[in-house]
Amino acid sequence: MSEYYITTIGQDSHRFGEDNNESGVIMLGGVEVPYDHPFVANSDGDVLLHALTNAISGYTGVNVLGGAADKICLEDGIKDSTVYLKEALKSVHGASILHVSATIECLRPKLKAHIPAMKSRIATLLDIPASSVGITATTGEGLTGFGRGEGVQVFVLVSWKVEG
Question: Which domains can be identified in the chain, with CATH numbers?
Answer without folding.
Answer: 3-163 (3.30.1330.50)
